[in-house]
Amino acid sequence: MSYIKKPKISHPGLPRNAIGLTLRDYEGSMSTLCAGCGHDSVSAAIIQAYFDLSIEPHRVAKISGIGCSSKTPTYFLGGAHGFNSVHGRMPSIATGANAANREMQYIGVSGDGDSLSIGLGQFGHAIRRNINMMYVIENNGVYGLTKGQFSASADVGSTAKKGEANPYQPIDPVSMAISLGCSFVARGFSGDKEHLVPLLKAAITHPGFALLDVISPCVTFNDHEGSTKSYEFMRENERATVYADFIPNHEEITASSEPGGLETITMHDGSRIRLRRVAQDYDPGNRAQAFSHVEECSRAGEIATGLLYLDTGVAEMHELAGTTEDSLSSLDYSRLNPGNEALAKLQQRWR
Q1: Architecture of domain 23-319
Q2: Which of 80, 143, 173, 248 is least surrounded by Cβ atoms within 10 Å, i.e. has the fewest?
Q3: What is the bridge-based pairing of β-strands 272-277 and 303-310?
Q4: How far apart are the C-alpha atoms of 213 and 186, rounded to whole Å?
């Protein structure tokens, strides 16, 4: 985590939102991620989304797991509450926090490793319970903190830093979420802020579990074997007196596409991904169509983006559990602990 604070000095002419705050009020600490990392673009989009919605930062709880993506809550909404949990266990923390205080806005930030490998079971049950939160997966297909091994979302045939090809089928969080009945499913690209910010705002305001899978390129592990500018080549051919590692700066990858359009994105290593944005007449309320669209794009070598599925009729976790309208964190002790007589009546129901 980064603890380097940004200076609070800001230009007096900065635009203010409906509650009188500027974008600077929604920022966090200085990022320690690699220059050009897509995750920083996601943080910038989150800052913009909360600013546009005029949500007070202290009304937000940021929860994450382990990984490059899970570091990013430090870089936005510095005035919000935060909890960095054990690897893959962020959904449990989010569930408990939401159960205790339903009045907060919850955002979970995770990665393809944190959610689709060690945290796959927890991810699935968070969808099943329909926790009222925005769940952002910053998806880059690699384990960035442990030197770029394939993650569970890596496509078949994609190559790693050392050149080996991935032989395994990927887990697609979007297809999985739709099949589990997730009430809000969307996918964006970190380099297309114009498209990503509206998706974030829709996810934030959705009453229930809102999954937003964001394709977010890793700039560090794109130097494949065979490149004359790879780390491996330079170490074999350079005769240095001091061994040091260096991650070169890269320009941020950006894109913009029209509804229904296909955008081919060239990554830093020269490889390409193809993003297919949903058409203007696409119906996100048709679950079968949503699943079919994602599969058709996948077979064509494309990545479906946009609001892919929405169901506003699914009950949120507190409705399903029949909890009190008052937040549990606001109740006094006498209501939280009604005494032995009430406990005996409760136990009698199970005899």
Answers
A1: 3-Layer(aba) Sandwich (3.40)
A2: 248
A3: parallel
A4: 6
Q: How far is CA 333 from CA 255, 329, 338, 345, in A?
A: 54, 10, 8, 19
User: H or E stretch including 309?
Assistant: strand 303-310
How many residues are listed for the chain in this entry? 351
Q: What are phi and psi of 315, to 5 degrees?
A: -70, 140
Structure tokens at 4: 């380097």
Residue 34 DSSP label: P
CA 54 to CA 163: how far, in whole Å?
Answer: 46
Enumerate residue ranges in the chain where pLDDT < 70. Answer: 1-5, 7, 222-276
**Short-list 116, 187, 158, 161, CA closest to 273:** 158
CA distance 73 to 138: 12
The SS3 call for residue 44 is helix
pTM: 0.80
Q: pLDDT tens digit string along 306-334?
A: 889 999 888 999 998 888 888 888 888 88
Provide the b/e sequence for 299-330 (b: ≥16 CB within 10 Å): eeebbbbbbbbbbeebebbbeeeeeeeebeee
